[in-house]
């Protein structure tokens, strides 16, 4: 058994709003599995080597529960159109490039590297409709040490003819080929991914629902992101009172289903999420960048809905989860302003919990640095930043969020291995 000990200020988020700090503490691992966090090293570990991070902060890494890998080349551009026009004008054209597997390899290798440098060690990700590029994406994430789920996108209507489209039969056949080919990729599992209701025929949705049940696969999609989109869903599924029912009727609304955005989900839709244990992924920056709206995260949390964070790259302008966390807080402050100060904004501790523990739980992890979990952690480096007095660890964490520095993450652990 290999014992490793990390020494530093150990910081984790065991519950919503709770930042637990063990100053000058020890995080003990055996074969990458957390044995405990101690303020004094237990004598049984006295002879083991210690990696001393000094005054640095050893914090939980991030889990990004919603992002689109093939949109990486357009990150930071095309933020002037609302969702449906944005998809048709920019997004589908960009995703179409991933028919080229060499291009996919180059871009996805770089993306995987950047995610690790940003301290994102777990992802739930959309690929494009291309099976081969999806397999390449899974390989590159695995190579970089990232763990999580990737979905070949299903979209057999409303693509761009001749550019980005698949027939129902192709979509089914390619999904089966993908599922048969991706078994050996370490740490990365497949997740069924109907792009969103408007992109999929009933026949395709029914196939995905039965595949999810028969093969015990998870499902991800988009929900109630934009008012025009919701109008379109109502016209396509007049039998559904609410958007979520267009997934529910095909067996896609189930335990651990991931639904991105949920900006305009009303109380009934949110209750349906809670009952089914569906994860609502809040994509704060994207919701503003595409002028979709500001999701009622505080209400969701109060009602017991499971919420985690996603960058939604490239509907957003950012990939770094420290930026996403800051954006989440800012968005919640806009809701506070517009509620005549009735709705409390999210605190730094709450937003960091959503970006860490809440997301890691979807992958089966416990709360904070839980004993028995494989380590997912970052080391925060802020020694270059000036201050007029010694800062508390809590103040330093806050500043790392709001004033994110290049190279503010000096080491990363994913699934028990050091990957940076
Ligand atoms: N809805 C369907 N496709 C997409 C996408 O690529 N990004 C976002 N933000 N919403 C979508
Ligand atoms: Fe999205």
TrEMBL record:
<dbReference type="Pfam" id="PF01979">
    <property type="entry name" value="Amidohydro_1"/>
</dbReference>
<dbReference type="InterPro" id="IPR051607">
    <property type="entry name" value="Metallo-dep_hydrolases"/>
</dbReference>
<protein>
    <submittedName>
        <fullName>Amidohydrolase family protein</fullName>
    </submittedName>
</protein>
<keyword id="KW-0862">Zinc</keyword>
<keyword id="KW-0479">Metal-binding</keyword>
<feature type="domain" description="Amidohydrolase-related">
    <location>
        <begin position="58"/>
        <end position="418"/>
    </location>
</feature>
<dbReference type="InterPro" id="IPR006680">
    <property type="entry name" value="Amidohydro-rel"/>
</dbReference>
<keyword id="KW-0378">Hydrolase</keyword>
